[in-house]
Amino acid sequence: AGYSVGTINDTKTGVFVGKDYSNSLNYKMITAPDAMKTTGTWEGLLASRLSYAFNLSGPTMVIDTACSSGLVAVHEACNAIRNGECDMALAGGISIGAGGASTTNNDEDEQIEKDTTNSGTLGAVTSDDNRVRTFDKKCSGSVFGEGIVVFMLKSYENAVKDGDHIYAVIKGSAINNDGASNGITAPNPLAQAEVISEAWKRAQVSPDTIDYIEAHGTGTLLGDPIEILGITKAFEKRTNKKQFCGIGSVKTNIGHLVAASGCASLLKVTLALQNNIIPPSINFEEPNQNIDFLNSPVYVVDKSTPWSKKDRNRRAGINAFGFSGTNCHMIVEEVPERTNETSTVRESNIITFSGKTETALKTLIKKYCEFLKMDRKLNFDDICYTANVGRGHYSCRLAVIAKNTEDLKNKLNRLVENDFEGNGLSNVYIGKHRIVSEKYLHRAEGEITEREARELTIEADSLISDLAAQDQYDYGKLDRLAYLYAKGAGVQWKNIYEGEKHNKVSLPTYCFERISYWAEPKVSQIDPDANIGA
Length: 534
What we know:
By secondary structure, this protein is α/β, with parallel strands linked by helices. The chain has 15 helices and 19 strands. The strands form six sheets. A six-stranded mixed β-sheet has the order 7-14-13-8-9-11, with helices on both faces. A four-stranded mixed β-sheet has the order 2-1-3-6, sandwiched between helices. β8, α8 (223-236) and β9 form a beta-alpha-beta unit. α5 (69-82) packs across α10. The N and C termini lie far apart (61 Å).
């Protein structure tokens, strides 16, 4: 999104997390006793930890409506922004802690893993063949997976004003509950139809302008036909068109992410709009015998389908239904055409990269090399602005002065080819620093004291002030600033762009190292051979 910790700190930002309470029980059971265990696993503190860490003053809450939790969290975040309770929000869903137990597949006579995290609930809708076959005749349930999806949300007007990179626009959304259905866990098609109709009303769109619906699509014999029935009833109130709207489910690709499933659906639609292609809903061969697609407004998108530009904004609906009976429907459309004008174009600019480890930094540079191979037609000054202001700055650093995107690409490629040795590369500075005590008599390379770090920062601040007043940067001062940054100076990058108009662009993000962190297993003291019933 182009926002670093420094730019989000102390803001009126809300945090809305959709989290199914039940799927973290395994983690709580295996962890060894620890005094801080409660604050780390208490469901209500999940969102508050972010607000605490970054001093965010907007509304903070954890929402549990079972499988619809994540999309309901986004819905509530949008309402909070509209009501002025926060200026922007972080909202999404999380699903971790899926367990497994072996079960035999009679057809293939092989062992497959099936999720039994909650055998009394999820186990009842778990696929027999480890495949999600949404809307298909052979469907037998879902495969449960893990995932985290988070969106940064802001009003459209403010996003445009702030030069944000906007991926899609949420036009409107609605939630309701099944009420008294055929059973407390049975879906209600009338309620589902009503929530879809209400979402159209709030979004102020005509249903015949909806090109695609991302279904909840759990792949169950009961749930899929009821979902299509609800969609059909909603459309029938407003249009008689048949098979004009595509439908699919990302669960066929990545499984059922429970509380994060609605947000995974929203992410899929957003990427489909960005790439002008509706991805196929896989594992679909023959329609479920209980679904009459011929007389419904929808058809299954079973192959990659171009989603070409139209004379209106392309739109899609997203369904998220919950075991709790809480339903949510959201209308999303593409970003209207707009001009992203940057106020300055300079002959040379500075761009910075950093990581907490050398491995992270090197991986990031390689990602940029791949990124810059593609002809994205991005403004070079906007690239520098986003990298400098919208990213964190850590101990392992690289600063490059380049004339344009091609110059930057050549310098980074040569850096990788030289095994990250900057020798022979002009205006390229690599450094790694660590703050140590003044009492250190024998310091290693890169170790600096707090006093030395302050001196570097003071000089950098002075250079920033001088450069901010120039239409074209003084090359010598720019070079000196790059050197100071690599040495460990704390640079207030936003000050160099004061009074200028820049747009945030989508760039490679921080490269975390593939290191697993998990709690120590809890060793049971109970003798497994003891006759407990005696």
